[in-house]
Amino acid sequence: MKKIFTFIVVCLMSLQFATAQEAFVEENIQEQMAEFVGGEEALADWIEDNISFPMMADLYSIDERVVVSFDINEDGSISNIQVEDSPNALFADEVVRRLETMPLWIPAMQNGRCVKVNYNLAISFVF
User: Fold this and answer.
1) Spatial contact of 109 and 75, defined as CB atoms under 8 Å apart
2) Is this model's pTM higher than 0.85 or not?
3) CA-based angle 49:53:54, to the nearest 5?
4) ∠ at Cα 100 (96, 103), nearest 5°?
5) Given a cut of 60, is residue 52 above it in pLDDT?
6) Coil vs helix vs strand at 117
């Protein structure tokens, strides 16, 4: 059986502090960024354990990189998963399908309150 090695290539974080319900906070001071429970290593482990090489892609022996962004909400749930870059829909669909089952994160904090943030993640599939 072929061993699939999945890893995080890039974790870029961008913060979105203004929401439709709140007035823009002039001092956008990030106190604590949202974090996967257990940190980046636990996130990498979760990705490796839960996101697999699509079966149809096995036929093509393809290496792929999927870049996604998603919101980490005030309650730690994720939403608004968007594929930012993926040359192959098989890989993008697998990443989105599995991210929809991701456990709760520790939400970001700003000014003593939980806030919604946007998180960018690049996942490489290496055949």
Assistant:
1) no
2) no
3) 125
4) 130
5) yes
6) strand
